[in-house]
């Protein structure tokens, strides 16, 4: 099961903030991250990981439904690399 934005708001609310304040906090944080990525700025959250913008060049592809070759336009994608601390925590006990 995925952790949704509503569940994050609920967990912030559990810290003692009002429901409206919890929504404002989560929305503000996400907006800061989105704006930074839009401006080609990496977002580094110590102990969590790093969101980066990567440029994908024009390349050849194929339509899986028809098998027809096509050209994919250049585009930007967001990548995430987790920190060593998060990786250790995820793999703890394995």
Automatic annotation (TrEMBL):
PROSITE patterns registered for this protein in UniProt: HISTONE_LIKE
Keyword line: DNA recombination, DNA-binding, Transcription, Transcription regulation, Translation regulation
GO molecular function annotation: DNA binding; structural constituent of chromatin
SMART domains assigned to the protein according to its UniProt record, in alphabetical order: BHL
CDD domains: IHF_A
Keyword DNA-binding listed: yes
Keyword DNA-binding recorded: yes
GO terms for biological process, alphabetical: DNA recombination; positive regulation of metabolic process; regulation of DNA-templated transcription; regulation of translation
Domain of life: Bacteria
Gene Ontology CC: cytosol
Protein name per Swiss-Prot or TrEMBL: Integration host factor subunit alpha
UniProt source species: Desulfosalsimonas propionicica
């Amino acid at each position: 099961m995925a952790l949704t934005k509503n569940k994050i708001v609920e967990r912030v609310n559990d810290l003692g903030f009002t429901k409206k304040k919890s929504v404002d906090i989560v929305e503000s944080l996400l907006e800061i991250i989105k704006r930074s990525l839009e401006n080609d700025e990496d977002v580094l959250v110590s102990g969590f990981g790093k969101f980066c913008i990567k440029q994908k060049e024009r390349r050849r592809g194929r339509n899986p439904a028809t098998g027809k070759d096509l050209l994919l336009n250049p585009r930007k994608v967001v990548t995430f690399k987790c920190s060593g601390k998060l990786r250790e925590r995820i793999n703890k006990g394995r």
